[in-house]
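Issue 218. Parser rejects a valid record. Input:
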Amino acid sequence: MLIGVSMVLMQSKVVVALSSQEVERIGKEITVRIVDSQNPNVAGSGVLMKHSGNTYVGVDVGVRLPDVVAAAPKADDFFIKANEKYRQKDYRGAIADYTQAIRLNPNYALAYNNRGKARYELGDKQGAIADFNFALKINPNYAEAYYNRGNVRHDLKDLQGAIADYNSALKINPSYANAYYNRGVVRTELKDLQGAIADYTSALKINPNYADAYYNRGVIRAELGDKQGEIADYTSALKINPNFAQAYFNRGVVRAQLGDLKGAIADFNSALNINLNNDKFYYNRGVARYRLGDPKGAIADYNSAIKINPNFAQAYNNRGAARYDLGDPKGAIA
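Output the parser choked on:
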């Protein structure tokens, strides 16, 4: 240790002295790095004068090492900051940082992809596509960039372009459940119902807990007249997501069509427990109640539907019929 207030940090080339005279002689020639024990962050240099056992005597000559110069920000630094801003929904701030990352690294495919997503969130769909294009030019095997571009193309009604992008994403990553799902959505819009079912089924093989895939497949099965398959899919969706109001509603509609009015009402009740502001939930429960011989309950439901949607013509018509059945012809006309 250094006598006084400073500690000596020996340089990498250690000099071993055999005698005190030798120490004094070579000490004049050795410059050592000195750290103040009271302030370890302050460093300087000194001359080693003599040595006794493990004790050294040195003189601080007052030469300080230069301050550490902060390293210039790297592309990854901006990328990380941008991701955090994106997570916080500060999309403009995220775009600015992704742009800085790209300026420092023009081949930063991930930054282009993520900037594209931020632009999409701000409604700049053409800018988003341009960024996904850049990402794919840098990395032609970037499955997520194909997927993201496919989503934007779908929004822009370029359905064939969307399918082409989902195809490319799946060619690179055959386990991309969301790509199967979204391709199923586009195929549904193109009336390729069997193709849509195949895509939802593929998505479910990869992710058996994909409630939306069960739901959408159920909707397609309804269009194909497969009511039991439809009910099975809605039931599977509800096991995964018990708060899926629309799945309860759709299952209730099918049950009503199959004559299971009590089961239908139970499903409409469940849907309304989740969402009290859907006019169709009330209306369909009113229809089921009327068919079960409960015109008063039906009228109450039609009233609720009309309160939410004052232009619901069929609800007015059905309420009039129920009032007539209760001996209120004037109310039926009103």
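Fixed in the parser; the record now loads. The beta strands are 6-9, 31-36, 39-52, 55-64.
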